[in-house]
Amino acid sequence: xxxxxxxxxxxxxxxxxxxxxxxxxxxxxxxxxxxxxxxxxxxxxxxxxxxxxxxxxxxxxxxxxxxxxxxxxxxxxxxxxxxxxxxxxxxxxxxxxxxxxxxxxxxxxxxxxxxxxxxxxxxxxxxxxxxxxxxxxxxxxxxxxxxxxxxxxxxxxxxxxxxxxxxxxxxxxxxxxxxxxxxxxxxxxxxxxxxxxxxxxxxxxxxxxxxxxxxxxxxxxxxxxxxxxxxxxxxxxxxxxxxxxxxxxxxxxxxxxxxxxxxxxxxxxxxxxxxxxxxxxxxxxxxxxxxxxxxxxxxxxxxxxxxxxxxxxxxxxxxxxxxxxxxxxxxxxxxxxxxxxxxxxxxxxxxxxxxxxxxxxxxx
Length: 364
What we know:
alpha/beta, 11 strands
């Protein structure tokens, strides 16, 4: 029994250590208050997605992700995102992106005068009766669109004081975008930047495109590395040329610390022929420091404490973050890149709303 008790104490100690690493060990703030508390009494089908819904009982779930957790995110997508996403039984490559080629497809385009050879099944009898001349309906074909997700897993992403590390939130965002694209009939490709290496998967439909991404996210989670350099993202963006072609969509999920001038130039070049969106992941502590109390940070090995006590640099810290965010918005407007910012304690589906609705159908 003594050995069993010792094992149990060791297990609890390891779990507590993982949770402390996750939160940055902010002294004076109870661990039980780090997860969202609101909405617990609501019905599950009416609740916004919360991190607790997908974490389960794993005490280290805010530090790392698992394939099972990312697979469960598929069920958190809003039902409205499925409208218009049906695939044609006649074409395995049909999707919800409108093709520039006109023909006998699924999306109504226009009515024009009948021409010899037109299918009489598409005759518009109302217009024919009104004009006295035969008219036929013309449709626009829907084709599949590649959706590429670039996930930044630089060492700077292994940080968090609320709910989860930035890297974990980035992985969940990437999984939601991938599942949403797959449900709309898009082919999913990905590129992960982690530890100075790149993991690429070519676009594929359905689970064949999503599951390799989830597996890479599981394997490539960064760990706190004091002094580790942030790898610039420009080379990774160069390699996307092998995955992208005109009409593709690109999502960049990052804290943007590795996005320098060269990276922005490459994003601008990509946005000329593709739809590019930036999902900016940040921790609430990066946006504003608390005015009172003492903060203690840990990387799992060493600890660093800092006393706030209404220090004047707290306001300066917040001003610097707001200025950097304004710069990001300005660069996004300049290079025609869509932008959304997500804090690590935000409900993800609500924050990604504009990217998850079926109105993203281009050309409609």
